[in-house]
Amino acid sequence: MSPRSAPVEIGRVVDIGGGTARIILDGPTVRRLHEADPGEGLALAGEVGSQVKMQSGGLWLVANVRSLKLEVADGDLIIAEIDFLGEGRVCPTTGRMLDFRRGVTRYPMPGYRVYPAVHADMLQIFAAEDRPHIEIGTVYPTADVRGALYIDSLLGRHFALVGSTGTGKSTSLALILHKICAMAPHGHIVMIDPHGEYPAAFKGEGELFDVDNLALPYWLMNFEEHAEVLVTSEGAERQRDMDVLAKCLLAARQKSRAAEGLSKLTVDSPIPYLLSDLVNFITQEMGKLDRAGDTGPYMRLKTKIEEIRSDPRYSFMFSGMLVGDTMATTLSRIFRLPTDGKPISIIDVSGVPSEITSVVVALLSRLVFDYAIWARNETPRPILLVCEEAHRYIPSDRVVTGSAVRNVLERIAKEGRKYGVSLGLVTQRPSDLAEGVLSQCGTIIAMRLNNERDQAHVKAAMPEGARGFMETIPALRNRECVVCGEGTSIPMRVALDTLEESKRPASSDPLFSELWTQSGGEGEMIARVIGRWRRQGR
């Protein structure tokens, strides 16, 4: 189609609503365009997921085709449901679309003509504005129109990446984070990696932490986190144990030299203390009792503390070497302050004992949030906290209620942007996330979801104009996604770029057909595995 030729009419508007409309397409015309695409991107004109446009005054209105059905079983007219996306000015000389923007200010009337969006229109619709952005892939149904994410909106309003296992979720996250790091080499990203997949993707470009080098001092925990680790009882006994712990923990913190001169010392203050002092205060309190029957809370706490101190699996956190005031060093290392050419921290918690994994995640998340709160009067250093397997840490009320990690992540989701903390949630089970958390994410990147409940959960969190794109989620290919929300100009379906092999996470599935044809070396392998198993390390 030449610049001055008239666009091809494919239908008419028959019904108008606030955000949606119904149009009737002429079947023979649409099929003719499919068969003789003149290089203008019309081969998919009128199909589900494609874009159409209508002229209203001096504006082109753009809509996405949500569904199609024949008007009558043996007829040529097709009824289509469409969702409005935005509008652009009509160029007075060429008739093409200019200055596309999201939202609709002027609706078409029934009877208005409908045209397919051509390649030049797609370039206008998905053109990245003069705002900082990263390009992540190619917009469907085009072969060369690039899909962009706006960094400030993506991170300023939180984002969620959802998709079933095996859809390329980990590689897609690595792609997005690599693009962000390349654009912002002095960024501050903290990623919690529960399976040890991401060190392979960021070696050389990120700081890698695991139980061997994390060195996370126990005294950085607040009282709620202390209670989750040390209090093992339930019901009425739990409250008694917590009262004893609160009294003795405060006394142990007050004994520290770092507490001198502090007038507002609380049980939550990150003041170094000795575990031996905590045990001594528990023993002293127990000695004040008149009846031996009341010693239960004290004995339970002492036993748990001794158990943790003697367990080498907990040495990354409860070692006697971590009693010094290393708070400044710890925050600098984890938050990348300064960056030193490595803007991302990958914290591999796969080696952390399962019973305290959630406490470690809670502590790391709370340190990010508390640092941001107390740094309000300093030069802003926004931090992105990325949480893989988010449904494990912010579970729905159907799963569990009330835990330190859930409380802090929910608070970051609600209040984080005020203090410069961005949250990136990654999950394969969005329906198991706490109610409301997904809706706090301004941008949703949805890959294929096989479970109907997960689809419904994501659909409920998507903005109204993107609901039509939800219908395509079960049909997405691997490494293809639907993006909607604040981080993109309009909802879009994107085929993500291929990531270099060296930058991919170690998340590929084992190939049974290939691996089960190999044999040899099993004896030596078992010996090595048992050695690592017994050492509880790599």
Question: Can you give a write-up of this model?
Answer:
With 538 residues, the chain is of the alpha/beta class. It is 33% helix and 21% strand. It is built from 17 helices and 18 strands. The chain has helices at 27-35, 119-125, 151-156, 169-183, 199-202, 223-230, 235-255, 275-287, 296-310, 315-318, 327-335, 354-374, 404-419, 452-461, 467-470, 512-515, 522-535; strands at residues 11-16, 20-26, 51-56, 59-70, 77-90, 97-102, 113-116, 133-139, 146-150, 159-162, 189-193, 206-209, 344-348, 383-387, 421-427, 443-446, 480-485, 492-496. α7 packs across α9 (296-310), α8 packs antiparallel against α9 and α12 (354-374) runs parallel beside α13. The longest helix is centred in the middle third of the chain and has 21 residues, at 235-255. The model has no long low-confidence stretch (mean pLDDT 86).
Sequence-ordered SSE layout with sheet pairings:
Elements: E1 11-16, E2 20-26, H1 27-35, E3 51-56, E4 59-70, E5 77-90, E6 97-102, E7 113-116, H2 119-125, E8 133-139, E9 146-150, H3 151-156, E10 159-162, H4 169-183, E11 189-193, H5 199-202, E12 206-209, H6 223-230, H7 235-255, H8 275-287, H9 296-310, H10 315-318, H11 327-335, E13 344-348, H12 354-374, E14 383-387, H13 404-419, E15 421-427, E16 443-446, H14 452-461, H15 467-470, E17 480-485, E18 492-496, H16 512-515, H17 522-535
Parallel strand pairs: 10-15, 10-16, 11-13, 11-14, 12-13, 14-15
Antiparallel strand pairs: 1-2, 1-7, 2-5, 3-4, 3-7, 4-5, 5-6, 8-9, 8-18, 16-17, 17-18
